[in-house]
Design brief:
Shape: globular
Order of helices and strands: HHHHHHHHH
CATH architecture of the largest domain: Orthogonal Bundle
Radius of gyration: 27 Å
Length: 230
Amino acid sequence: MSRRGYPDRALRLLTAVVLTVLAALAIGSCRSAQAAEPKRTTVRVAPASALYRHRVEQAAARAWGVHGSPARLAAQLHQESGFRADARSPVGAQGIAQFMPKTATWIATVFPKDLTAFDPWNAQQAILAAALYDRWLLDRVAVYGGGTMSECSRWAFTFRAYNGGEKALNRERSLAYAAGADSNDWHQVAKFRARADWAHRENIGYPRRILLVLEPAYIAAGWPGSSPCQ
């Protein structure tokens, strides 16, 4: 073997080492990117929803007529209790629609013909009560400052009021208005807080999950309805 062969052999060895290192770096980079990418989860409708589908469709029709979205009401009940008629929250909310006792007593006086002797533990009554309460809250969502409001924002405010009350929501909308933000846009209002931090996080997350995650899942599963946030 000539002396000239040694440099060639060393060069080939060095090239192989470099390629091996580059390959290792590429693999590591790929794995890091996969680890950084958030895991996607598939949302499935609650199995128990099949037991109540007819009642949900009836309630949506009673509250909204042909414009009702059973998928939206189903998404709300999914978020509230996972369609468990015996659900009880740590703060005392009851039943499939998670009515607080005082709210259950009050809503029966607003709709006496529909909710005679309303029992929040009665799933059929509670589903109808949730639909009627949603309609009542939606009709009370006001447009501030002569502006405009999308149907998506109107429903987001409705669900925030259902979850955390109208008073706190209206205070936060007023804070947004005073700060020059669009108080008719649910995304901008979400930046303003007039309640405990944990309660605010829960309240702004409530409509997001219903409108952007759960309702589309129920529609995809064959429930009638259409999303206002398309």
